[in-house]
Amino acid sequence: MDRALFIAMTGAKNNMMAQTNHANNLANSNTQGFRADFTQARSMGVYYGEGHPSRAYSLAENPATDLRPGAINYTGRELDVAMNGEGFFAIRAPDGTEAYTRDGALSVDINGILRNGQGHPVLGDGDFIAIPPAEKIEIASDGTISAVLLGQGVDQPVQIDRIKMVSIDHRELEKFSDGLIRLREGGLEGAERDADVDLRLQSGYIETSNVNTVDEFTNLLSLARQYEIQVKMMRTIKDNSESSAQLLRMS
What we know:
Elements: H1 3-27, E1 40-46, E2 55-61, E3 72-74, E4 81-83, E5 88-92, E6 98-101, E7 107-108, E8 114-115, E9 134-139, E10 144-149, E11 158-162, E12 165-166, E13 173-175, E14 181-183, E15 201-203, E16 205-207, H2 213-250
Antiparallel strand pairs: 1-2, 3-16, 4-15, 5-6, 5-12, 7-8, 9-10, 10-11, 13-14
């Protein structure tokens, strides 16, 4: 088999992988706090023993995540919060580690646990934030949660907890395979950061995804065209191979 067929095949394979990445970004364009993933492609030389590579194959990579903030929209809902400037909300991931998000679409589950839009428990000064049955819940700019409990007067609010907000250099963060952002230094091993009391949030607002839908759609069309070219190349290589075999039979 001509090695060119393998080269074209790797190109088509990596085009499909890149399309999957951009399709995931596009699918989450309306997901609160979602951060788009970058993709890049580079040429890798193919070595056969000693000497210089005579061919190169393409390699698609996911080098980083776009951590720039998305647009902030007003909702008026008391449990919707958006981070002012840089910073992240701390949540508890399903594997028990601490992870970080900008998703501030909060809600209280049937057990009174405060969760974000993806269903992950939001962390407070201790661990989970448990909110007793309340008539009204308010979240201050510093993340302090106050509630008017059932049967109590509106002039007797109770301070429940404070949302843990952390400030982390983006170079220290990494999006893992479960879609959650963690510290590079610890990842699934459980590295955590202390709360930053200087961070502020806005109640009644929500941060949208930072995905640029036009760019993502354009990238998908470009990658689809590149895939077609790779498949056409494989057909051409096949035809050349059959023609060579026919010439050999004639001789």
